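Hey,
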Amino acid sequence: MLPAFSFFDSTIEKTLSFVKVDLKRDVALLHKWQQQPYVVPFWKLNISFENYEKHLEKFLADKHQTLYLGLIDGVPMSYWEAYWVKGDVVETSYDPHPEDQGIHLLIGEEDYLGKGYALPLLRGIVRFQFQSKGTEKVIAEPDITNEKMIHVFEKCGFEKVKPIELPDKTGMLMYCHRETFERRWEDVFKRAAAK
């Protein structure tokens, strides 16, 4: 598995990597994660393996998003959807810049829950998204009832904007501006670069 983006995070002393999802290699693992009781209320994809495989195939074919496995020290433990706001259902919820990006995520492996990994991983993927020079803002729209995730987004540098109605949920629209993000995490990135 060749990572699309990988770096050492000194705050947790671990290597974080993001690898593009491969249908054949990853469908069983991702289907297993979607059955987790703490994932189901927010993702609503506790469907049969056959139906999930079709869903994943469709999502992988969608050119406005890229799907990743998130790894800690080489172990797959999370799932990420990095998307361009243009072409997404959320684009009608605000006035997007043409190069705004967004992010969805879940921690799939229960052993990694509550260990403080969500923030470093989120920080890593947002840093990866900001490598696209035209992107000045990354957005998120977590379920308005998912207080834990909203808190993690805020710690990362996202700010609440407004509740929005989406086809499958009421989301909390959140923005993370490049300048805010880079200023907040400058020291962490310098330490990573020094490794």
